[in-house]
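Input set for joint prediction.
Command: fold jointly, output tokens.
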Amino acid sequence: MDSKLITFFTSIQPISDEEINAIDQTMAVTHFKKGDILLKENQLSSNTYFILDGIVRQYKLIEGEEKTKDFFCQGEWILLTNNITNSFSDCYLQCCVDCTLVVGNSEKGEHLYKQYPNLGSIALKLMNNIFIQQQAKHDTYITDSPELRYLKLIKTNPDLFQQIPQYQIASYIGVTPESLSRIRKRILKK
Amino acid sequence: MDSKLITFFTSIQPISDEEINAIDQTMAVTHFKKGDILLKENQLSSNTYFILDGIVRQYKLIEGEEKTKDFFCQGEWILLTNNITNSFSDCYLQCCVDCTLVVGNSEKGEHLYKQYPNLGSIALKLMNNIFIQQQAKHDTYITDSPELRYLKLIKTNPDLFQQIPQYQIASYIGVTPESLSRIRKRILKK
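tokens >
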């Protein structure tokens, strides 16, 4: 298994060699190119992704326009509602830059948790972490100005976000590309 | 244990009498009055709540103004980031109407999951469900108009939401009370 992924799991809770092997058989480290689509609207997929390197964008098509819902960065799991409910996806996932991802599978995961309660316990803690991250992202919609939302976003990965089209970032923080341009100018002046 | 709560757990996965007793010892059905505060900003609390009856509002104080973040209704768990991280709360929880709640405890819960892996497995499924609900709520911020967000909100509990001050609902859907008043008039005309 990829050493970063082992470090990630053991930072949550110790795991045995047998458990490492069991996880290894359900996951694969895969390289994707900038622009690659991981998931489309109306697709059935139980794939989940852990980001070793890169940025993945989640967006919805609303009346033909892309509405960016989320950016996932290094060290984050991409888990979507359709992974849990085995339903058709209502969104797209696209690699914003070249990415190295661990591709997991929510169905295979469930079998693992039954077989290895320790992994089930890790999954619960992982789910808690994902919940916390999602809550924090949701909070930025409730409490933060677009400017603060922009600053929080690029703080995680300033170099990589340089490569992302401004209209996608504008859509994420909920302003027009023109407003984002003004926000960026204000920040540069500070 | 309250029969509604047993039904709730067994609808996720079968549980034994021993497990029911174990859950029972960590939870208590409690009645609260309209206006009761369950949690304050900067408070440390590992209490979680399952709503048997009523509506609970989560809000933040931002520059002295209440910003309504969420309404929790019958059949929903209230789980907050501070429950998981054992950190100080950054928000308030208040009963909007008289409420009957099951008061659980996230710390006691963790001991239970270690002792009874079946309950740990239920906790993971429950966490998945909470994640799905939170995602759906977050999505309404990304894709829905304030009018649609209002309609989705009152659909769950139209009678009870009659009793909630308009400024709180306006804050939740992200408009001024005057705009909400216009939205309500438009809906009534349809």
